[in-house]
Amino acid sequence: MAVKGLRWLVGMGLFVSFLTGSVICNAEGTKTIEVWKNLFAVVNGDGIDSTTTFLITRDGVVVVDTRVTPLEAGKVLAEIRKRTQLPILYTINTHYHGDHTFGNQVFEDSGAIIAHENVKKSLTGASGKAHLDFFKTMNIPGMDETVITLPNMVFKEEMEMYVGGYHLKLIHARGHTDGDLFVYIKELKTLITGDLVSNGKVPYMGDAYVEEWIASLDVLSDFDAEIYIPGHGEPGGKPVLIAMKHYLINLKEMVRNQMEKGLSLKETQDAVRPLLQAKYKNLKKQEWLDANIERAYLEFSMKKDR
Ligand SMILES: [Zn+2]
After folding, report:
1. What is the pTM of this model?
2. Are 279 and 196 in contact (CB under 8 A)?
3. Average per-residue pLDDT in the chain?
4. What is the Å distance from ligand 1's center to 8 Cα?
5. How many angstroms separate the alpha carbon of residue 195 from the centre of ligand 1?
6. What is the pLDDT of residue 27?
């Protein structure tokens, strides 16, 4: 489909995945979506359904997130090599979680592996090993082959890259973890959000900061973007971002309402779980709702004590 046509349809608030002429599925269910000319999102796949994005520029390729194992990262590399033999110039990690970084070793020859400084901290030494050990309990094929491969270029607030005709901004925004970044590609009006946005799935909140996450989504909203590529699920227009924000605001309000009545964590979970289930019954990973409620409860308990 011509770029102009895609742009118009996205402007109508429809999902990109219905629209692109070029969607390739392999036997395992991994799907490569041509989001724009030269910009591809690899979604679904084995193990964990985290998204990898790659941008083919005239000088080489930029890869954002590396999936959960070298095996899965190898499938991404094969998708890249079907389209170009240009070198991988940069690899970017949106945050430290293994489903976004444990394929890094496949891209270790790229010019740099770039992330927020907290990603490097989290993956270094004992905390990195504990994270890998945790992933090894999940029975994901190829997990034993993973060797933690650290980012070798880090930043604190933001950095800008001018690569083969594209201007990329990498911006730190806490929320899903303490080391999230998102990528804005100005020429394509596209935001690659990492796990600050999930589409069609209850977000994982094991390292989350609920209040700051909502604030970070406000920052994302301010960008002139038409396409949002989430850390999980398919790319879409602004409704994908808005849905994520509504989920977090609902979680926050529902938990706070129960806490104001003096309810315990268990009582709050029992009260809020059915409300969230009713409102978000279409989301995958319903079993994470209790943990989400707990994370919000603990965060707001600490704030109350201060
Ligand atoms: Zn994550």
Report:
1. 0.90
2. no
3. 91
4. 31
5. 5
6. 43
The whole-angstrom separation of Cα 171 and Cα 89 is 19
The span from the CA of 278 to the CA of 66, in Å, is 34
State yes or no: pLDDT of 20 exceeds 50.
no
Name the 3-class secondary structure at 173.
coil
Who wins on pLDDT, 227 or 23?
Answer: 227
Cα of 260 vs centre of ligand 1, distance in Å, is 30
Domains and CATH numbers, the chain: 3-249 (3.60.15.10)
Query: Rg for the chain (alpha carbons), in Å?
Result: 19
Nearest Cα residue to 222 out of 249, 194, 248, 184: 184
| Measured CA angle at 26 (ends 44, 17), to 5 deg | 50
Cα-to-centroid distance, 78 and ligand 1 (Å): 24
Compute CA distances 17 → 28, 163, 187, 217, whole Å: 18, 26, 20, 22
- Whole-number Å distance, alpha carbon 3 to ligand 1 midpoint, is 30
Residues 252-270 have pLDDT tens digits of 999 999 999 999 999 999 9
Map residue 278 onto helix, strand or coil.
helix
Q: What is the CA(231)–ligand 1 centre distance, in A?
A: 7
Contact call for residues 180 and 94 (beta carbons, < 8 A): yes
Enter the tokens of residue 120.
Answer: 């490097």
Taking the C-alpha atoms of residue 202 and residue 232, their distance in angstroms, rounded to an integer, is: 10
pLDDT at 236 over 80: yes
Q: State pLDDT tens for residues 112-171.
A: 999 999 999 999 999 999 999 999 999 999 999 999 999 999 999 999 999 999 999 999
Establish how many alpha carbons lie within 13 A of residue 232's alpha carbon, considering only the half-sphere containing its beta carbon: 20
Q: Which amino acid is at 195?
A: D
